[in-house]
Amino acid sequence: MAIQLVNLGTSANKGDGDPLRIAFDKVNDNFQEVYSDIKQLNSANFGGGTLVHDTIGNVIAHDSTLLVDANTGEIVGPLASSSWQTTGAIDIDSTTDDIDITASGVLTLENASQTDYITIANTGVTIYSDSNVAIQSAGNDIQIGYDVASGDVQMGHNSSQVVVNGTLDAKRFAKVEVPTYDTATRNGLVVNNGTIIYNNLTLALEAYVDGSWVSVSQQDVSEFTDNTNLIPGDVADLTDNTVLLKTDVSQLTDTTNLIPTTIGDLLAGGNVGDFVTRTSTGYGWTAPVPESFTLTDIKAVAAASIDFADFQARIAAL
C-alpha cells in the first residue's frame, strides 16, 4: 500500500482539508502497515521470524565481528555450527593462504555410504576401508611414515607384511639394516617352521622347528640328525634307480675294450700257432720248436726193433 497523506487544507481552520474521520482513517492505515513490517523485523532479530526480502550489506555480529563482507560477497567470519548438511559437493578453495582445520579431539573424514573413514588424532592418522586402500599421487612422490628428524621410512603394520608389486630398486637406499635377534628376544617371536634367523651370540644361523631353535651351521655330518636315513651308511642303503652301481661285468659299458673277451685279448703280439707259457715276469707267447729226424735216427729206431705202434707213441710224445 502506498502511503496515505492527510490533506491539511490551505490554512489553519479554513475547512478545506480532510475531515477528522477521514484523516485518522489514513493515519490508522499507515500505522497498520508500518506496525506489521516492524513486527516482522523484530521477530527476525530475536528469533522465529522470516525475512521475505533480500538483505543487502555487511552482516556484523554483536561484538562487531564481520561475518559477511557485502563488497566481496564472502563469508569471512567464524562458523560455529556443529552440523552441516548438503546434497552437493563442498569445495573449499584458498588461492592466497593455507587452509587450517582444527579440532580439539579427533578429526574424522567419513564416507556416508560405507564404513570408510580417515581419522586424525594426536596418536596418528588411521585409514580404514572395507576394500583395498589405494594411496595415489597425481604429481610428486608419496612419503609414508617419513620422519624428518631421523630420516626413517616406516611401512606396514606389526601384524602384516609389506608387499611390493613391481620392482623394488634397493640402489636408492644407502643400506638396508636387518633386525638383530639375541637369545632373550628371539624366543618371543611368533614364527612358523622353516624361519631362519642369525644369532648374534652363537654367530650361527638357527631355524625355528617344532617350538625350538635348531642350529643350521653344522661343521660335520655327525652333527646332523638323519631321521629319514638320507645319509647312507652302507652301499645297501643307496637307491640305485639308474644302475650306477654294477653287480655284474655285463652291466658295464666297455667302449675302449678294456674288458677282454678271450685270452688272446690279454697279451699283445704273438703269431699263429704260438702258445702261452709262464715266465719269470708273467705270461707271454712262445713259438713251438719243430723236431727234425734224419735217416740215421730212423735206422736207429728200426735197429731197436720197435714196432709201428710204439713208434707212433714216441712220435706223439715229442
How would you sum up this structure, described in words?
This protein is of the alpha+beta class and 318 residues long. It folds into 4 domains: 1-52, no CATH class; 103-132, no CATH class; 144-242, no CATH class; 260-317, no CATH class. 16% of the residues lie in helices and 15% in strands. It has 4 helices and 11 strands; from the N terminus they run H-E-E-E-E-E-E-H-E-E-E-E-E-H-H. The protein has helices spanning 20-46, 183-186, 295-303, 308-317; strands at residues 59-60, 66-69, 74-75, 107-110, 117-121, 124-128, 195-199, 204-209, 212-215, 275-279, 282-286. A hairpin with a 5-residue loop joins strand 1 (59-60) and strand 2 (66-69). The radius of gyration is 61 Å and the shape is rod-shaped. The mean pLDDT is 77.
Number of strands: 11
Q: What order do the SSEs take from the amino end to the carboxyl end, as H and E?
A: HEEEEEEHEEEEEHH
Total individual domains: 4
Low-confidence stretches: none
Task: Label the overall shape.
Answer: rod-shaped
Q: What spatial order of strands do you see in the largest sheet?
A: 1-2-3
- Fraction of residues in H or I helices: 10-25%
- Biggest sheet overview: 3 strands, antiparallel
How much is the average pLDDT?
77
Q: How would you classify the helix and strand content by structural class? A: alpha+beta
What share of the residues does DSSP label as strand, in percent?
A: 5-15%
Radius of gyration: 61 Å
- Could you tell me how far the N terminus lies from the C terminus, measured between alpha carbons in angstroms? 175 Å
